């Protein structure tokens, strides 16, 4: 059964917010309604299964891995009415055109992906898909620092916050990432520039380690001394 009009739905949020669970829930409902469903995922994401999308809670749904978004065009079957795209932030920019073309053909396109990377920046093509979608749902996880709603993703390297200049795409799960709220996320320093701090502790810089601060002064740093800051920014090194 072809929909009378196509659309793009985006489910976004931080890691561990339930994006893939929500994608699978919608796909299962479409299957129950006897709609033809196909699901695609970036081949780079093989954390739980190569030919399934899988949530952190264990839900799965059959999927076709692709190296390039353009491959989807040749793999779509004529009677498909619902297409799922998981981990959309890992697709190349062509996925925007593919999703648009499918929606123009009357297909319901359901997209799930991270809206921000570990640095707190828009992730890949997700902001474009979100702007072009008819529906956008942003989900939240639980902050592993304070227990409040989490909208950010914290990357950890040997238990420490990753630096800002580290690669954006590193596929992983709880061994590398935690959900954090705005004030709980920390990004390490890169090239002598402070990116972010929180909870009274500056954590890392690319050539040293800031240990603590107190009453408006950073009081220790392994290779020098930071003497002050103002309005959330370090003003003198």
Set out the fold topology.
Layout: E1 7-13, H1 19-32, E2 37-42, E3 52-54, E4 60-62, E5 64-66, H2 71-75, E6 82-85, H3 94-104, E7 108-114, H4 126-132, E8 135-139, E9 141-142, E10 149-150, E11 152-157, E12 160-161, E13 177-180, E14 210-214, E15 217-221, E16 228-230, E17 233-236
Parallel strand pairs: 1-7, 1-8, 2-5, 2-6, 6-7
Antiparallel strand pairs: 3-4, 9-10, 11-12, 11-13, 14-15, 16-17
Brief characterization of the structure:
The chain contains four helices and 17 strands. Helices cover 16% and strands 30% of the residues. A six-stranded parallel sheet has the order 5-2-6-7-1-8, with helices on both faces. A three-stranded antiparallel sheet has the order 12-11-13, with no helix packed on it.
Structure description:
The chain is α/β, with parallel strands linked by helices and 237 residues long. The protein has four helices and 17 strands. The protein has helices at residues 19-32, 71-75, 94-104, 126-132; strands at 7-13, 37-42, 52-54, 60-62, 64-66, 82-85, 108-114, 135-139, 141-142, 149-150, 152-157, 160-161, 177-180, 210-214, 217-221, 228-230, 233-236. The strands form six sheets. Strands 5-2-6-7-1-8 form a six-stranded parallel beta sheet, sandwiched between helices.
């Amino acid at each position: 059964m072809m929909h009378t009009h196509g659309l793009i739905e985006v489910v976004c949020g931080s890691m561990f917010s339930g994006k893939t669970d929500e994608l699978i829930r919608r796909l299962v409902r479409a299957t129950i309604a006897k709609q033809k469903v196909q699901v695609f995922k970036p081949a780079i994401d093989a954390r739980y299964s190569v030919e399934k999308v899988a949530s952190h809670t264990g839900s799965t749904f059959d999927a076709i891995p692709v190296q390039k978004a353009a491959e989807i065009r040749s793999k779509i079957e004529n009677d498909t009415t619902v297409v799922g795209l998981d981990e959309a932030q890992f697709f190349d920019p062509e996925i925007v055109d593919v999703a648009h073309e499918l929606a123009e053909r009357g297909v319901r396109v359901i997209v799930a992906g991270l809206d921000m990377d570990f640095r707190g920046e828009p992730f890949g093509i997700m902001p474009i898909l979100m702007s072009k979608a008819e529906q956008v749902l942003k989900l939240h996880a639980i902050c592993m620092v304070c227990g409040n709603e989490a909208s950010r993703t914290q990357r950890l390297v040997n238990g420490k916050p990753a630096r800002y200049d580290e690669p954006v795409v590193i596929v992983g799960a709880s061994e590398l990432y935690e959900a954090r709220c705005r004030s709980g996320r920390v990004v390490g320093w890169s090239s002598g520039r402070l990116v972010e701090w929180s909870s009274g502790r500056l954590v890392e810089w690319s050539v040293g380690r800031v240990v603590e601060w107190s009453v408006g002064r950073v009081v220790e740093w392994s290779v020098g001394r930071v003497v002050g800051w103002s309005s959330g920014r370090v003003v003198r090194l």
